[in-house]
Amino acid sequence: MKTKRQKICHCCGIYTEPQAQDPDRDKGYGTCKKCSTQIALDNEERWKGVIALVAKSLNPENRAKFLSEHIAVQAHICDEMIKAGIISWKFS
Ligand SMILES: [Zn+2]
Description:
The protein is elongated and about 55 Å long. The model has no long low-confidence stretch (mean pLDDT about 85). Strand 1 and strand 2 (about 15) form a beta hairpin. About 50% of the residues lie in helices and about 10% in strands. The chain is built from 3 helices and 3 strands, in the order βββααα. By secondary structure, it is mainly alpha-helical. It has a 3-stranded mixed β-sheet, with no helix packed on it. The protein has helices at about 35-55, 60-70, 70-85; strands at about 5-10, 15, 30. It binds zinc ion (ZN). Zinc ion (ZN) binds near residues 9, 12, 14 and 32.
């Protein structure tokens, strides 16, 4: 049963915690913990492919620096490269 402050998960439709409001979603919708975890894992998998491609194109010194960064930093760098038009990303 839904309580007044709960949100509906936009992904699986279950009632979520009140704090699960997603700013990109309509009012009353959020993302439950299970779906949030899955989405984060899916995103990480997608980024791994882009990160590998970018790493391959760098010289050995820069590749070592790039690969020593946390995946969030690597993904941010790739995101900046996508925004700058240096690389493109097709969703399939
Ligand atoms: Zn969900």
